[in-house]
Design goal:
alpha/beta, two-stranded antiparallel ribbon, 40% helix, 15% strand, globular, binds flavin mononucleotide
Amino acid sequence: MDMTTRYLGLTLEHPVVASASPLSGTLDGIRRLEDAGAAAVVMPSLFEERIQREREALRGLSEVGAESHAEVPGGYFPAASLDSIGIGGEETLELIRRAREACDIPVIPSLNGTTARGWTHYAKLMQQAGAPAIELNVYYVAADVTESGAEVEDRVVGILDTVCAEVSVPVAVKLGPFYSAPGHLARRLVTAGATGLVLFNRFYQPEIDLQAMRALPTLDLSTSAEARLPLRWIGVLYGHVDDAALAATTGVQGAEDVMKYILAGADVVMTASALLRYGAGHMKTLVTGLRAFLEVGRYETVAQARGALSHKSVDDTAAYERANYLQVLDSFRPADFSP
Ligand SMILES: Cc1cc2nc3c(=O)[nH]c(=O)nc-3n(C[C@H](O)[C@H](O)[C@H](O)COP(=O)(O)O)c2cc1C
């Protein structure tokens, strides 16, 4: 069985990749994922906020150094800890360097921000540290109701432009699903230089705590049912963004979820929640299970299975379109829910 896969100019042994999570935030963690059979690993993001805070702290330090006495009780740093936002800039670069030396699989760093200002030079530093490619995560919640859809999209393309101007390595964009025309934006990003699209960012939704009377951010691990949204868009985009690879993220718990994403058209399939839930060793289960599914389907290569059930390949495209809405409503039987 040939499961070889191309992603971001890299040749991977198979299509199952560990996506950004705390599991890949240390060299030991990355090695564990490699030992468990990950074809590639994405590091936790370096956040724009973190870069800005580090820069402000440095600026504060140099001003203090120039103007005042060194022994001030309590120190000069802001009260909030820099450690509270992901891993730091220098830590990220050092991890890229060490992973490059210690691992045989590609280890891809991730940059995460929402403006095109000030922090994107880290892309160049990442490349210089040995990054084989960069994942750019634009986790943007368009909560400003005066901002138009066109402005939101321009923002994403503008950030990509700035990052692409910094580096020569391939750049993948990790996108959220909440655009009025995700396919059009995807194509715009590919034209602007994205060589991969990672679909989709999983937005962490607020919860209302009735006891505390507060709105709280929440982070639950995903379930397989959540794979359907990215699955639809992978299926729709397959064959329409030929210059870019499609990476699926969200909802992969078992090998059947990996196989479904491949059939929809994913080049690589990423997983984080399942690895956090079952441990890094679960990677082996996913890869072995994918191989088994391919064998049962009598595929000789993963490439033969890729996109076999995409929008482009199925005779009846209803499942990917509005018609699906009508069929699903029509198929509902109240009796299905009786106790
Ligand atoms: C605890 C945790 C930390 C994460 N950190 C990052 C991150 O730093 N950058 C990023 O792009 N995605 C991050 N993600 C998102 C995952 O990479 C992944 O895209 C998302 O969880 C959906 O995949 P899943 O259903 O397999 O979990 C994180 C997810 C979890 C659960």
